[in-house]
Amino acid sequence: MATMTAIDPMVPEVRHRLFLRPGRDASVRAHHPWVFSGAVDRVESLPGAEDGDCCDVHEAGGEWLARGTLHRSSQIVCRILTWEAGEEINEGFFRERIADAIRLRSEILDLTRTDAYRVVNAEGDRLPGLIVDRYGDHIVVQVLTTGMARLQPIWCAALDSALAPLSIIDRTERAVHDPGMTGRLEALRGTVPTDPVWICENGLKFRVNLITGQKTGFYLDQRENRRLCGSLAAGREVLNGFAYTGAFGAYAGRGGAARVVQLESSAWATDEARTNWEANGLPADRVEYVRDDVFRYLRRESRSFDMIILDPPPYAKDRGSVDRAARAYKDVNLWALRRLRSGGLLLTFSCSQHVGIDLFQKILFGAARDARANCQWLQRLGPGPDHPVHLDQPQGEYLKGFLLRLCSRDDSGE
Question: Is residue 351 flagged as an active site residue?
Answer without folding.
Answer: yes
